[in-house]
Amino acid sequence: MSKRIVVTGGTGYIGSHTVVELQAAGYEVIIVDNLSNSTAAVVDGIEKISGVRPVFLELDCNDKEGLRRLFQSYPDVRGIIHFAASKAVGESVHKPLEYYRNNIVTLLNLLELMPEFGVQGIVFSSSCTVYGQPDILPVTEEAPIKPALSPYGNTKQINEEIIRDAIHAGLPFKSIILRYFNPIGAHPTAEIGELPNGIPQNLVPFITQTAIGLREELSVFGNDYDTPDGSCIRDYINVVDLAKAHVLAIVRMLETAAGSPLEVFNLGTGRGVTVLELINAFEKATGVNVPYRIVGRREGDIEKVWADPRHANDVLGWTAKESVEDTLLTAWNWQKRLRDR
Ligand code: NAD
Ligand code: WQD
Q1: Could you tell me if the CB of 49 is within 6 A of ligand 2?
Q2: Is 262 helix (H, G, I), strand (E, B) or coil?
Q3: Which CATH number is 4-184+237-267 given?
């Protein structure tokens, strides 16, 4: 039985770490990426870690005929992990049509081609963003989906509905939707990690760039929230732990008859951490000071969210293992590797 998997967005942050774990599990990976938010050098990093160079096709998932040629060239593809998307929340507010096209048409192309080539299943990258500000914490998969606060978040909600409706209509494939909380950190080898374009929007890359001197100081967006220290709470999950969840999802979806045709899992640690706690954890783990200033709230930020990961723990057989402190150290080591390149 083939073990060939297509990973769209596979030179991206989460995708590259997932390719490494898929290879470790014996899968043969084909990376499809248009390099709109990554570089082909990531393939070298993957090879350095695993010793196996994945097939890499520079291809836009909006190019349906290009995808068709891919599946014609590799007729034994068993499954897909679909990471490819535009993911900057703030940017999506200013470029909604670009986000709707890129994040929705790419999924439609894959879903339409899968039955033609007997692709058995697709793992989809979703986000805790779909929950908005949950009424009950920790948040379970049964929590209501709230109106999206950004076009980006809306694309994730729409994509989940598209997959649900496709499977309800009887299309011959399975799907597992993974709702990530806040992925952070880098591979322990520091061969791959997060490569934010321009000024980082996310907290941890901004912390590491401030710590290394690329940024003057970190702005903490608000300390007047209803939280222990007034700063926002998130569930920060190690990117390698997250990658390992994808392997378990692929195995469950393709190698077993377990579960229903469509399953949803929250991927988080189950532990909420405030912004100020994260800064303190970074300074404790690295011994490096992070100058910061409390400023006003960032528009669109929710106050607090963390996962109830019991469904993934019990059904997927997955648990986040790495501590926030150890994970922040991998982020710091990666930032130092980028400086020394
Ligand atoms: P990333 O930007 O590092 O990776 C996405 C990759 O997809 C990039 O390499 C980019 O070049 C590629 N890509 C984008 N559009 C494409 C297209 N049309 N065709 C081919 N390749 C394309 O982002 P990431 O952080 O690795 O996120 C991966 C997925 O996880 C995304 O779907 C994102 O929405 C989702 N997600 C990310 C986070 C997070 O905090 N990083 C949280 C929740 C969900
Ligand atoms: C975390 C906390 C900020 C930067 C976003 C997307 C989500 C997902 C992950 C794609 C917040 C605070 C941040 C800074 C700060 N991406 N912060 N100063 O907003 O939880 O989630 O990225 O799917 O969909 O919404 O992550 O890292 O941007 O912010 O104080 O310079 O850090 O206010 O409380 P967020 P983040």
Answers
A1: no
A2: strand
A3: 3.40.50.720
Domain boundaries, the chain: 4-184+237-267, 203-234+270-340
**Which CATH number is associated with domain 203-234+270-340?**
3.90.25.10
- In 3D space, the residue among 315, 321, 15, 322 whose CA is nearest the CA of residue 140 turns out to be 315
Note the pTM of the prediction, 2 decimals.
0.98
End-to-end CA distance of the chain: 41
Tokens 């989940």 belong to 160
Encode the chain (341 residues) as per-residue pLDDT tens digits: 889 999 999 999 999 999 999 999 999 999 999 999 999 999 999 999 999 999 999 999 999 999 999 999 999 999 999 999 999 999 999 999 999 999 999 999 999 999 999 999 999 999 999 999 999 999 999 999 999 999 999 999 999 999 999 999 999 999 999 999 999 999 999 999 999 888 899 999 999 999 999 999 999 999 999 999 999 999 999 999 999 999 999 999 999 988 899 999 999 999 999 999 999 999 999 999 999 999 999 999 999 999 999 999 999 999 999 999 999 999 999 999 999 98
Q: Is the CB of 14 under 6 A from ligand 1?
A: yes
7, 19, 36, 57, best to mutate for ligand 1 pocket (most atoms within 8 Å of CB): 36
> Atom 7 in ligand 2: which residue has the minimum CA distance?
129
Annotated catalytic residues are 152
What's the rounded Cα separation, in Å, for the pair 41 and 310?
37
